[in-house]
Specification:
The structure holds 2 protein chains of 2 kinds. Chain A is of the alpha+beta class. Chain A contains 17 helices and 30 strands. The termini of chain A are far apart. Helix content of chain B is 35%, strand content 14%. The chains are: A alpha+beta, B alpha+beta. The interface between A and B is large, with 62 and 57 residues.
């Protein structure tokens, strides 16, 4: 891209002219002297042959971010989404401090907060673009701008009936761009929005159903070679020796080389696994040769990392471990002494793998002190920093190309697959595409945590909870669950946590910490209600009536409005007919959880299929996610969280046997298919008159697991305190 | 020995490694990247294509076995500019989230509806086994039924 010294500029070529309405780091960048192109990027491209392209800042992994962002631009620009193209902006952040960091636009998918993080800037930018186009038309026609109206990609003059397409204003807009001050233009109020708040289908739907090559794994560049890596199958270990003679005989093999673990210290968190890499002319040749490698591994230092062993350690720690206190209030000992009833239970969950449907891949081309990558990655800054971390090239010298992801779930936040490609490209001096197998993806996962929890609560004669004590022992630091509500709602409260030593690579898994915290807390609340005979819904409403507003004790530390908790509970309960008489072997469960930014309730209707199986037939949901930019997309994310949660609860179990992963493909790690998916999903998006969006992507998952297990209890009398359900019914 | 077959109506020959799965021939040699790699062991269905009209998982079909076969991939499903009714139904129900598995889901459904033009829920449960990690199953079920209705109406 040419250096930009104006907000709107003309780029000419022989065939077409393109107006690129650029957004700048500065609030009103006008006639600035050649700002770094890293800070400038379009939100709108107009082409003189009539093509309009909206440019969005955050990559899509299925959460619908590109559609949602396109709606924000389309709303301000008065264009129809089905008449425009949508493409991803390049990285816009800064690399000045030796690290890639986000600039004006957040360019990552995580924390269910991407929508709210770009909401103001993107609309403001688009509003500026619209104003430039209106002014250009006004000058063309020599009428005041205020009398003109933007609609359907045109500027209209209602007075005269004239209309001109945006794409015919390219030259005229060029001359007015400098004079419009972006900080004088406000985006539309909610009442005037016509695209935001309305259902929008996936803007890439047609590309997807036609099988167009839009994913990271589809990328290829001229001259690239392929790499398949046999990584250490032990959580941590060493190569003792390897024999590559047979592998080298495979036609198409170019080279075979080793990769060292990063960092070298095996007690430190793994960034890149050690392994043996086959470089070949095709993926298949590399794969075939890699399978022929004879490698002797030493995994002796990982033998303590064992699913059963870690489970025992967590359970033992609950009895005699040293715990740190997170939140303590009132006097739990006194409350337990006075209690009419005491309820106690121990919960356990194993690790869950991400199983991203698209195996990770990355192309890197490292040449001298410059590099370029082609990759599907959740966070643009992390992907670029991965190159720097691997081969020491300054992020200012890393060119990056980002693609759609076949899911991410937090796993495509990691840098390892980018680092591997950069390391191998540097080693052989050519562009290299590293493609992972399913086995790689599961063996080298950064899994959800494994943990055990002991909860003890007291209740008065009316079933009101008078004290709550939770101890959490896990392979990660399990402080978050101990700070979740009902902490600070119940006066007599103690939360304690303990981390057991381990060498497991853990990472972000859709709704980190919340995904299990919701289950443990909401299931235990259901246990208390069952033990005291109190109405289950009422007992939840009572807990969340103890305060009106609290600042969350967990990231991102937002205010929690308990009116919303009560509203989503009541709405889902009403719509589901919660509490109605069910046929024999059927039951309903209800649960609520607030994940990062938003709160969601589900009611699950379950039918037992004999003693050992069940079906969740119907899920009724209510969510408060602020202003829903795309209600259809919000529903998609709620549906997705429901399916993901039901699946993880039933089957999720990533198994380590003495440091070796034994669940490394879909034959050993079962996933839910359509036959087990609820055929009836009824979602209600609540409107509290908010004028800003919050988020949805992870929010629906945490409460669906307890809603399911509470339903199983109602249907069968069996309380699920150990996951996965398939092994514990 | 060279193997001859057709992909989306175009005749091709292959004389490479007969153990290579059809999936990698499609993706790396035929330039058809709509067929996706998911698991490599025929479990997830992301690589589903039609082989002589039947849905198969191309990661588990060695090139040595496709002699004389007529293969259709997602790129060949539409009739020129006119999308297949299953593709249309997928758009109408806004099924795709990430979209990675959907080519396989659509290919599986297109073959399934040929055998079972008016499927019950139970038929769908038994006939469609592809994995979707976004959990679009609820919309897939609706799209299968919509496609069946649209196909019956034409």
């Amino acid at each position: 891209m040419a250096s930009l010294n104006r907000r709107a500029f003309l780029k000419s070529s022989a065939a077409t002219a393109t107006l690129v309405v650029a957004v700048s780091h500065a609030p009103h960048l006008i006639a600035q002297n050649a700002p770094s192109t890293a800070h400038v990027s379009p939100c709108l491209k107009l082409n003189s042959d009539g093509q309009i392209t909206l440019c969005v800042p955050i990559p899509d992994m299925g959460q619908g971010m590109e559609t949602t962002a396109a709606q924000m631009i389309a709303d301000e620009l008065h264009v129809e989404l089905n008449e425009v193209s949508v493409e991803l902006m390049p990285f816009l952040g800064s690399t000045n401090e030796g690290r890639a960091v986000f600039g004006r636009f957040y360019q990552g998918g995580g924390g269910s907060g991407s929508t709210m993080r770009i909401y103001h800037e993107l609309r403001r930018t688009a509003a500026y673009a619209r104003t430039v186009l209106l002014e250009a038309a006004a000058r063309n026609w020599q009428v005041p701008r205020t009398g003109l109206v933007a609609a359907s990609g045109h500027v209209n003059d209602p007075g005269s009936g004239r209309a001109i397409a945006y794409t015919d204003l390219i030259e005229a807009a060029q001359s007015v761009g400098d004079e419009i001050k972006s900080n004088t233009i406000d985006p539309k109020p909610v009442s005037a929005q016509t695209v935001i708040g309305k259902n929008a289908k996936n803007v890439h739907g047609k590309s997807i159903v036609m099988g167009e090559p839009i994913f990271g794994i589809d990328a290829e560049i001229p001259g690239m070679v392929h790499a398949v890596i046999r990584r250490c199958p032990h959580l941590n270990g060493d190569i003792v020796r390897f024999d590559d003679r047979e592998a080298r005989e495979v036609p198409g093999v170019i080279d075979i080389t080793t990769l060292d673990r990063i960092p070298e210290d095996k007690s430190a968190y793994r960034s890149v696994a050690n392994g043996v890499a086959v470089i070949a002319e095709s993926y298949w040749a590399a794969r075939k040769a890699a399978n022929l490698l004879e490698i002797e591994w030493d995994g002796s230092i990982s033998v303590e990392d064992d699913t059963e062993g870690l489970r025992s350690k967590c359970l033992a720690a609950l009895n005699d471990g040293e715990f740190r206190t997170s939140i303590e209030g009132g006097d739990i000992d006194a409350a337990f002494k006075e209690a009419d009833q005491i309820v106690e239970a121990t919960y356990f969950h194993p690790h869950w793998a991400h199983t991203c449907i698209e195996p990770h891949s990355c192309i890197a081309n490292v040449q001298g002190d410059e590099a370029e990558i082609w990759v599907g990655h959740q966070f643009m800054d992390s992907a670029i920093n991965g190159v720097t971390n691997a081969v020491g090239i300054s992020p200012s010298k890393v060119k990056s190309n980002f693609y759609r992801m076949g899911t991410g779930f937090g796993r495509k936040f990691e840098e390892d697959y980018v680092m591997e490609a950069a390391l191998l490209s540097k080693a052989i001096g050519r562009a290299v595409k590293v493609t992972w197998s399913r086995e790689d993806e599961m063996e080298q996962d950064y899994v959800n945590s494994l943990g055990a929890y002991r909860l003890r609560a007291s209740a008065d004669s009316d079933g009101n909870v008078t004290a709550w004590h939770i101890k959490a022992a896990a392979d990660t630091v399990p402080a978050i669950i101990t700070r979740e509500y009902p902490a600070r709602l119940i006066e007599n409260y103690k939360g304690e946590f303990h981390q057991v030593p381990n060498g497991v690579s853990r990472g972000a898994w859709r709704g980190p910490h919340h995904n299990v915290a919701g289950w443990v807390i909401q299931s235990f609340l259901d246990e208390i209600a069952a033990a005291t005979g109190k109405d289950r819904l009422q007992s939840l409403l009572d807990i969340y009536s103890k305060k009106e507003i609290l600042k969350s004790a967990n990231w991102p530390y937002r205010d929690t409005f308990f009116e919303r908790y009560r509203a989503v509970l009541q709405k889902a309960a009403d719509e589901a007919g919660f509490g109605k008489t069910m046929p024999n072997g059927w039951g309903q469960g209800i649960a609520v959880h607030h994940t990062f930014v938003s709160v969601c309730t589900h009611v699950v209707d379950v039918e037992m299929l004999g003693e050992k199986d069940y079906r969740a037939h119907r899920v009724t949901s209510a969510i408060d996610c602020g202003l829903p930019v795309n209600p259809l997309g919000v529903r998609a994310q709620v549906e997705s969280g429901i399916m993901d949660g039901l699946c993880a609860a039933k089957y999720g179990k990533w198994v380590l046997e003495k440091g070796l992963v034994t669940t490394n493909n879909f034959d050993t790690y079962q996933k839910m298919r359509i036959n087990e998916a609820p055929a009836d999903v009824d979602i209600h998006i609540l409107d509290f008159g908010e004028t800003e969006p919050r988020g949805t992507g992870e929010v629906s998952l945490p409460p669906v697991i307890p809603a399911l297990t509470n339903a199983i209890f109602a249907a069968s009398g069996k309380r699920i305190r150990n996951l996965p359900i398939s092994e514990n019914l | 020995m060279a193997v001859s077959f057709s992909i989306n109506g175009t005749q091709r020959t292959f004389d490479g490694d007969e153990e290579m799965p059809l999936l990698w021939h499609l993706r790396e040699e035929a330039g058809l990247k709509g067929t996706k790699f998911g698991c490599g062991i025929g479990q997830c269905g992301a690589c589903t294509v039609h082989l002589d009209g039947e849905a198969v998982r191309s990661c588990s079909v060695p090139m040595g076995t496709v002699s004389g076969a007529s293969i259709t991939t997602i790129e060949g499903l539409a009739d020129g500019d006119s999308l297949h009714p299953v593709q249309e139904a997928w758009l109408e129900e806004d099924v795709p989230q990430c979209g990675y598995c959907q080519a396989g889901q659509i290919m599986a459904t297109a073959a399934f509806l040929k055998e079972t033009p008016n499927p019950s829920d139970e038929d769908i449960n038994n006939g469609i086994t592809n994995l979707c990690r976004c959990g679009t199953y609820y919309r897939i079920r609706k799209a299968i039924k919509r496609a069946a209705e649209n196909m019956a109406a034409t």
